[in-house]
């Protein structure tokens, strides 16, 4: 017990002498159980229980499983970012709790709560510590009462707690977890993982988990509880229980994103069950690394995998998906609006080959953005880990709401592009000479291309003008999306635009009679250049104004992060001789997380730089 409380992995050595008669009676039973097809596990357990008794104690050993470098700091960053961190181990409860203290996962007192016995004085004397809730060696009625009490404390509203008293269960259709649909990253409104202003840490063992899995109602309530508890210790858990525990959370309402990390063969099942598996190449072999989605050499590199590579990859992929939908919807909307101009005749105002190359012209710059763009520096991510990681953790960029906003904005910009451009290039479709002087105008009125002959540019020239304006507008759009445009981006951007001009010009000189000489005719038209200059700038200006209004009215976590970093940069420039910002200056840069309502204080500059260097080296 002393070894376990010190964080050592204990091993008790004992023996038992069996007589020849006992062996002759036991071995046939063991052989029959070993070769049995039905209930083999239960029969082998019965054989083991028959002989594993009346041992003679030989001794006990304690082995220190030393933590890797940077483990406490890495877990502190994960917790600070708002992630729910679980430690699932096969060690006994005392060993697991001691290791959790060493790795900065739990800062509660070991004797604060023992099963169902609460000491009220411990809840008020140390407000800065966690409140440890134990669910160890419980089964039957004691387990049910413990889960019900924890569920009423964390999940239910005050009125629901009173109505629940006297009932053994709650209808699934009316319980909070069935309609809230929160995930591990979204706290339900009635719970924040706090009691008496203190964060909760839960300890559960394999015996209690077996009892939970046998009762569907208790399992559902337990899942609702652990989704709002930021720290969970699961001890005395077998490899099969590890995988079952991850599966239970992965299939919970809201389908939370689970990540499992391990370094041994006993973690392979857990890694396979999780949505993201990370294996550590350590002294226990490469079984976990070979079975995982990602392999790292040390636990502290998980911070870089999540907060740097993972965060940048999410933002880049989100920009790629949103831009791809936006540019295609804008072109489709322009063609739809052209149907009103052509009387819904189905006329396509452009050559098919030129039209089909739209994604090819605009595909190269966004590939550079989705591969190389960095929205903020790496050390800035470590200074505000909660705000920095919440963009991907809460799915703020790539979701239905944001996708709908981009789609609607694409149709709106397509309408502006079509109307303004057609006002520039539209003109009288025919002129009849004589005293009457009858003019027949298009539906949008007299434009700026009224020529002496009284004829317009033509269908393909008008379509080429609309098409070119759309291409240039999307080139401006991708520039506005690139936070840190590199030389590679500008090279691909230039090649993309010049390739479009070169292809359309050469193809216009050698194509069919419909598109022949269309590009030179458009280039000689002054309204073409006027539309090409003004319309993309008008769309870019409208996009900038819309985003500014949206940031002022409903700022996202990413907008708040950029605002805080801008304030810090100005404060550093105003006080260049102070290596780290003064706490009084830091207090002006505090922000409030819209999810948890907790005031955010930035990490010190030295610590942020140190963490950034650790995870990138």
Biggest sheet character:
5 strands, mixed
Morphology: elongated
What's the count of strands?
A: 16
Structural class: alpha/beta
Average predicted confidence as pLDDT: 78
- What percentage of the residues does DSSP assign to strands (E)? 5-15%
List keywords for this structure.
617 residues; elongated; alpha/beta; five-stranded mixed sheet; single chain
Give a description of the structure.
The protein is α/β, with parallel strands linked by helices and about 625 residues long. It has 27 helices and 16 strands. The strands form six sheets. Strands 3, 6, 7, 8 and 9 form a five-stranded mixed β-sheet that branches. The chain has a three-stranded parallel β-sheet with strand order 10-11-12. The protein has a two-stranded antiparallel sheet with strand order 1-2. Strand 15 (about 590) and strand 16 (about 600) form a beta hairpin. Helix 15 (about 300-340) packs antiparallel against helix 21. The two termini are about 40 Å apart. The model is unreliable at about 110-130, about 160-190, about 425-455 and about 580-600 (pLDDT under 50).
């Amino acid at each position: 017990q002393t070894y376990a409380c010190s964080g050592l992995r204990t091993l008790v050595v004992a023996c038992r002498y069996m007589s020849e008669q006992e062996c002759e009676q036991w071995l046939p039973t063991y052989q029959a159980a070993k070769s049995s097809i039905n209930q083999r596990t239960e029969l082998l357990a019965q054989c083991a229980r028959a002989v594993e008794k009346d041992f003679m104690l030989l001794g006990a050993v304690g082995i220190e499983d030393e933590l890797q470098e940077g483990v406490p700091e890495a877990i502190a960053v994960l917790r600070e970012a708002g992630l729910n961190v679980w430690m699932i181990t096969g060690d006994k409860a005392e060993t697991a709790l001691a290791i959790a203290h060493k790795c900065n996962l739990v800062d509660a007192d070991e004797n604060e709560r023992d099963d169902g016995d609460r000491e009220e004085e411990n809840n008020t004397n140390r407000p800065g510590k966690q409140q440890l809730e134990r669910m160890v060696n419980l089964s039957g009625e004691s387990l049910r009462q413990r889960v019900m009490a924890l569920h009423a404390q964390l999940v239910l509203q005050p009125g629901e707690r009173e109505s629940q008293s006297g009932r053994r269960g709650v209808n699934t259709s009316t319980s909070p977890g069935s309609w809230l649909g929160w995930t591990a990253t979204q706290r339900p409104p009635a719970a924040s993982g706090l009691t008496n202003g203190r964060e909760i840490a839960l300890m559960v063992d394999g015996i209690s988990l077996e009892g939970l899995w046998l009762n569907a109602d208790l399992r559902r309530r337990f899942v609702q509880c652990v989704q709002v508890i930021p720290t969970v210790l699961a001890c005395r858990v077998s490899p099969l229980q590890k995988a079952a525990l991850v599966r239970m959370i992965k299939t919970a309402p809201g389908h939370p994103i689970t990540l499992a990390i391990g370094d041994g063969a006993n973690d392979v099942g857990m890694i396979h069950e999780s949505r993201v598996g990370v294996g550590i190449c350590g002294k226990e072999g490469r079984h976990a690394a070979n079975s995982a989605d990602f392999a790292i050499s040390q636990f502290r590199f998980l911070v870089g995998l999540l907060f740097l590579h993972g965060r940048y990859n999410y933002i880049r992929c989100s920009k790629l998906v949103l831009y791809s939908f936006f540019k295609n919807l804008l072109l489709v909307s322009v063609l739809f609006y052209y149907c009103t101009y052509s009387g819904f005749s189905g006329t396509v105002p452009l050559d098919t080959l030129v039209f089909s190359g739209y994604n090819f012209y605009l595909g190269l710059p966004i590939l550079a953005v989705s591969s190389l763009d960095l929205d903020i520096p790496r050390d800035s991510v470590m200074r505000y880990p909660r705000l920095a990681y919440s963009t991907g953790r809460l799915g703020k960029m790539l979701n239905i709401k944001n996708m709908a906003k981009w789609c609607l904005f694409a149709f709106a910009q397509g309408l502006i592009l079509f109307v303004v451009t057609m006002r520039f290039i539209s003109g009288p479709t025919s002129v009849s000479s004589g005293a009457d002087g009858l003019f027949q105008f298009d539906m949008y009125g007299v434009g700026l291309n009224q020529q002496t002959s009284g004829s317009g540019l033509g269908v393909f020239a008008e379509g080429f003008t609309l098409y070119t304006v759309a291409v240039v507008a999307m080139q401006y759009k991708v520039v506005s999306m690139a936070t840190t445009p590199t030389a590679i981006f500008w090279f691909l951007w230039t090649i993309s635009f010049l390739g479009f001009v070169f292809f359309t010009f050469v193809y216009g000189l050698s194509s069919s009679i419909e598109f022949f000489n269309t590009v030179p005719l458009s280039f000689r038209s002054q309204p073409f250049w006027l539309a090409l200059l003004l319309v993309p700038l008008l769309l870019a200006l409208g996009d900038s104004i819309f985003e500014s209004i949206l940031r002022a009215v409903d700022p996202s976590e990413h907008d708040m992060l950029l605002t805080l970093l801008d304030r810090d940069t100005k404060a550093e420039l105003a006080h260049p001789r102070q290596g780290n910002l003064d706490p009084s200056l830091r207090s002006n840069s505090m922000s409030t997380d819209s999810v948890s309502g907790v005031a955010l204080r930035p990490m010190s500059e030295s610590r942020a730089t140190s963490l950034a260097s650790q995870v990138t080296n």
